[in-house]
Design a protein that fits this description.
Layout (H helix, E strand, L loop, with lengths): L19 E4 L10 E7 L10 E3 L3 E8 L2 E5 L2 E5 L3 E5 L6 E3 L8 E8 L6 E3 L3
Antiparallel strand pairs: 1-2, 2-9, 3-10, 4-7, 4-9, 5-6, 5-8
Length: 123
């Protein structure tokens, strides 16, 4: 058995990201899912590119602010205490618009944690 308590504010942010991303899976000793905490100021994006996953399902739980997710069908918005889910093969680009009043704080969970699963999407 194993249990871990992780203070997400004490996790060092990943370098070279368009927003603040803290990778939580490893510290929580998880191998079957990826968990990240994103904090994006107005004008910042969460992913590195408009993309889709071949196998991975994703769930974004919004802690504060409003997450915007561009899709081929239009833009989705998820506010505080909202869960936005993305099925495999579904293109997405998550961001906080420049004219937002505040940062967006999000917990993102992906399973399985497939390395190299993200594929660029070009509309």
């Amino acid at each position: 058995m194993g249990y871990h308590v992780v203070d997400t504010d004490e996790v060092e942010p990943d370098p070279d990201r368009p927003c603040t991303r803290r990778s939580l899976s490893e510290l929580g000793n998880l191998s079957q899912m990826a968990i990240n905490r994103y904090t994006a100021a107005p004008g910042e994006e969460l992913p590195l590119a408009y993309h889709y996953h071949e196998e991975q399902e994703e769930a974004f739980y919004v802690l504060s602010g409003t997450l915007h997710v561009k899709t081929p069908e239009g833009t989705l918005e998820a506010g505080p205490d909202t869960l936005l889910t993305v099925e495999p093969e579904s293109p997405q680009f998550a961001y906080n618009p420049e004219d937002a009043d505040e940062a967006v704080d999000v917990i993102a969970i992906g399973a399985p944690p497939v390395e190299g699963d993200a594929k660029p999407y070009e509309p």
